[in-house]
Amino acid sequence: MHGVTGFIESAALLVCAAFVLVTICSRIGVPSIVGYILAGIVIGPAGLGLIAESAALSSIGEIGVVLLLFALGLEFSFEKLVTLRKHVFGLGAVQVSVTTITVSLVASLVFDLAPVSAILIGGAVAMSSTAMCLKVLAGANALGSAHGRLAIAVLLFQDLAAVAFLLLHDAMSGAAEGYGVITVIASATAVVAALFIARGPLQVLARWVALRGDPELAQLLALTIALGSTIVATSAGLSPALAAFATGMIIGEGDARHAVENEIRPFRDLFVGIFFIGIGTQLPLWRLCRKFFTFGDLCHYQYGKLHEVLAGDSGFQGSSFPHKCHSLCCVLLCPLSSFLSRSSGNHG
Predict the structure, then answer these.
(1) Topology with regard to the membrane (predicted)?
(2) Could you give the 3-state DSSP secondary structure of residue 178?
(3) How many independent structural domains does the chain possess?
(4) Of 54, 185, 270, 290, which residue is least crowded by CB atoms under 10 Å?
(5) What is the pTM for the complete model shown?
């Protein structure tokens, strides 16, 4: 009983701190993610020390990553990919490849990381927050503009690259546990094949639930599909996030995509917020202060990524200030970046 009470007290502190700091951030125009991280810092071991690092907190936060990847899969469309193919495989490929290669070389040569770990670090820096970028563009009614389409093209390629980085992470984890790369690829192929076989029944079920108009059924279906796919992935030794992304793509091709997306959004936002609170509780402020140069390096890398995006945007020169501001959204790091960087640290 004492353990349950302690968990409830910790949860109450987390919610209160997050509410206060996210409210402040929203009032001054700062993304809510910053408020969640600050909440973790303030009440975590590096701050007031009101709560300790919790494995349960990290586990709950990982649910947010799974739901976020599922939501990204819902947004991903093969039709959209074909329409923007030139920009996706042109500008998007340049941004991801140049950033990944540059950061990987620095991580390998300067910090003496293993090659695979360095590549994961490079991939983490190359990724952007798709959800945040789309929110910025939608808020400015710029999704249909020329620069909005360019930003979406870069984000689409990053989503494709994210799948490759997740496969690399799984291959590295499998090698550490005695599995080969071929085994991981075979398992991934089997899981994707199983999901596509289940595509028809899943879409029929989602359409049936959407027609009933029962929000509770829609919520349960969305959570069952998103989290249920992770069971299949885990049994095959793969990343739950990868399975969630693939499942989201399958559901996204059906008519019930919007119903599923609308019902899962509150859960996704809540658990992603917990994920960032968990990151905040793990930030050692004294170490960050002693090694402040690493933050400067990260800013430099992000500046380089911004330069690549803008250099590929032929309409950027002489464009309006809002156009330039919308282009800045492509430098924002995403939760997947944190996942990849932590994974590289565990194996590097």
Answers:
(1) Multi-pass membrane protein
(2) coil
(3) 1
(4) 290
(5) 0.58
